[in-house]
Amino acid sequence: MEPFVKLARSSEGAVAAGCERAVYLVEAASWLERRVLRRYLERQGAATSEVLWLPSPRRQRKFVPDSRFEAALSASDNPRFVPVRLIWHPPRRGGVREARLRDLLTFGDPRDPGWLRQLWVFSRHPDRWEVLAGEPARLSELRERWQQQARLDAQHTHGLAEFVARQAALALERAERRQRGARYKVPRFVHEEILARPAFRASMAHVARQLGVGEEEVMRRATKNLREIAATHSPYVIDLVANLVRLLYRQGYTQLVYERSEMARVAELLQRYPVCFLPSHKSNLDHLVLQYALHENGLPPNHTAGGDNMNFFPVGPLMRRSGVFFIRRSFKDDALYKIVLRHYLDYLIEKRFSLEWYIEGGRSRSGKLLPPRYGLLSYVIDAYRRGKSEDVVLLPVSITYDQIQDISEYVQEHRGAAKERESLRWLMRVLGRLRRRYGSIHIRFGEPLFLSQALARGQEGSGTASEEPDLAVRKIAFEVCVRMNRSTPITPVSLLTMALLSVADRALSLREICALLADLCGLVERRGLPVTARLDAGDEASVAAVLAALEESGVASRFAEGPQPVYAIVPEQALVAAYYRNTVVHFFVAQALAELALLAVAEARERAPASGGEAGDALALFWQELLRLRDLFKFEFFFPEKDQFRREVGRELALHDPDWEARVQVGEEGARQVLARIRPYVAPGALRAFAEAYRVVAHALLLLPVAEGVEEKRFLARCMGLARQYHLQRRVRSSESLSQVLMRSGLELARNQGLLGEECTREKRQRFADEWDALVRRLDAIEALASARFATEVQNR
Question: pLDDT, tens digit, for every residue of 92-135?
């Protein structure tokens, strides 16, 4: 049993029983608290010599032990130390004690009132205060624990008084948390505990030797770094921010939607393990709405990693006090900073506090999940490997918006504009965009990933020992992203924009749009994909309501001067529509690649003889082409391992044609038959923008002398100019292809294929361009098949 950490008892039954001597460590923040607590202790029969007064940590006063405290720690009779404090409660409303926004803004924190307000509450509302005692602990227990933590011998006593006072405060925090609820589980004395740890001091000594400076100077810098990084939780600010977030998101969104059963499972995980929440990052509201959802369910705020670009007044102070710890954007060359950050994360993992960060690193400008960043994940995995916790849970979180208020910024960045720097003026513009309605916000929790299991699986198939840690981090990050994608629900807006973008700039009547949606909605239902709300393609009224929302936001236009109204994506808003489509495009990429691979088999004229002279090389060609396409789009989408990917493609094709493998084995005609049975075709709508943007990059590389280096910013600007020319010439058909974000991924693919380095040749670049020319041509062919089928079905309706 650890001293001061068992379940707390409150009021009259909390003190040590029996004839053993008790020493009361009493916290008081005002003269009134001292008077109330003194009377309480007198009723317990406590002598004046048995009461030691401590300053209240709520006032952040430094504790300086006096001679009476030192004498108590030198006692030979091994007394019990009993921590005691007076706590204050918010008023009870509707059976719940909760601080509301008007309470917080008018009088301050009702749990920490000033002496004047204390006097008023004490005299008029006796139900709003009580005496609280933490679990008693023997002096011998405290001394033993202190020596173990500080690794000191039994004769050493310097620092014991501060340790006992700190343990008393922690015991009272735990006792108070049981009274108030888990949402206020926050760390106390973070700086003191980390800086006093032997492992931390040893690290500082090592750094001092490396830098050739004194240990005191290194400790001074480390202390400054820790203050710069660490969150400083305040229950008052936690409540204040929660109330502000509720007020804020309701300005633009009707509701925050999540499953209570999922939140209950999250609560169970939080009780047993340190949990790392890894949400998708699509909006500046992501952290706020997740924090509010946790607060609403009585769960503590996460320790959330934030970029120091957000540490500006008044956002920075509020965020830091509600759980955000700020990290520099770049600190590769600062060894001391990295060590301090590692020890801070070690501390949080060891104490089982929850963490939160965006594995993508930044907000997605395209709507898709971005490639993962490995930095913080590596720190957490290292902490687990060093035994800081028996296990760590990585929890993917999908945060989905019916429509998003940040979209105008993203469109400008797609077109080449620089990202706007965060500031107070920027914040005002963000808040101003919440004046119109954007629908609902949906939170879904993916399947949790336990590090113990993930690392065990990685070790079974790992390579050399030197490669294993990096490989394990990459695999775990990839698995988190896959699970995050699986939990992302399809919204009616995303499904409708996918359908409309598949017909390029063509306008459709409501009846035609319903016909276009019918097969797509059917495919979603057959595959059992997650949805926020079912979109019934047979119900024109429900489809019209989604169209009206897109029309109100300016994404879709309605022309009503003819015999019947027609709708289309506004060409200038194609990137906005593409953003919503891209939030769910990962569900359809496997089928899209299969369509292209089937067409490649159907177009094949010469193939190598099959093994043993038997038919079947067409099926081998299909799989070969499919994996080649998978490799071409690896910088855009998360694909499972090759064998799993093949199984997923097989299952999806079986939904359209259970005998598809037998048909493809026949050869070209069989591949055409399978392709004809697929409905709907998704390749043009899902992949055209990416393929056309990559094709522009390939052609721009052909125009560049091989010996000339590629400066990314200048090259991407050249790509944008070429893309606009191609769009005017109709060589680029999709307006959403005019995107520097997509072209940057295309450039990354070219770099990965060795088209930018010294080993590059013009022949390699030509093959790369030919590859994308062929792929775009096949997309055109599949779109022609889709258009012919659509025209026939609309005519027959």
Answer: 877 777 777 777 777 778 888 888 889 999 989 988 899 999 89
- Strand partners of residue 132: 10, 85
Output the CA angle 618-619-624, nearest 5 degrees: 95
Question: For 613-652, how does the pLDDT look when each residue is reduced to its tens digit (9 = 90+)?
Answer: 344 589 999 999 999 999 999 989 988 889 999 999 999 9
Q: How far is CA 651 from the centre of its chain?
A: 30
Q: Please, are residues 417 and 425 in contact by the beta-carbon 8 Å criterion?
A: no
Using CA atoms, how far apart are residues 674 and 664, in angstroms rounded to an integer? 7
Helices (H), 561-641: 574-582, 589-603, 617-632
pLDDT of 606 > 80? The answer is no
> What CA–CA distance (Å, rounded) separates 362 from 400?
16
Report the C-alpha gap between 593 and 600 in whole angstroms: 11
Contact of 297 with 265, CB cutoff 8 Å: no
How far, in Å, CA of 89 to CA of 239, rounded? 13
CA 639 to chain centre: 20
Other C-beta atoms within 10 Å of 694: how many?
29
Strand pairing of 393-401 and 449-450? antiparallel
Find out whether 24 and 150 touch, Cβ atoms under 8 Å: no
Using the CB atoms, write b or e for 233-263: b if 16+ within 10 Å: bbbbbbbbbbbbbbebbeebbeebbbeeeeb
Please state, in angstroms and as integers, the Cα–Cα distance from residue 400 to each residue in 92, 397, 439, 583, following that order.
34, 10, 11, 8
Query: What is the 8-class DSSP label of residue 79?
Result: P
Rounded distance between C-alpha atoms, residue 307 and residue 316, angstroms: 10
CA 731, 737, 740 angle in degrees (round to 5)? 125
- What one-character-per-residue DSSP string does 507-524 give? -EEHHHHHHHHHHHHHHH
**Residue 11: both structure tokens together:** 């009021």
Distances (CA, A) of 243 to 73, 98, 184, 439, 652: 44, 11, 15, 20, 45
Q: Is pLDDT above 50 for 744?
A: yes
Q: What 3 state SS string does 646-674 have? A: HHHHHHHHHHHCCCHHHHHHHCHHHHHHH
What's the CA gap between 81 and 136, in Å, rounded? 5
Report how far residue 543's alpha carbon sits from residue 500's, in angstroms, rounded to the nearest whole number. 12
Other beta carbons within 10 Å of 159: 13
The tokens of 589 are what?
Answer: 């990429």
- What b/e string do you get for 640-673 counting C-beta neighbours within 10 Å, with b at 16 or more? eeeeebbeebeebbeebbeebbebbbebeebbbb
Backbone angle region of 251, left / alpha / beta, with phi > 0 → left and psi within -120 to 50 → alpha: alpha
Cα 418–Cα 424–Cα 425 angle in degrees, nearest 5: 60
Q: What is the pTM of this model?
A: 0.87
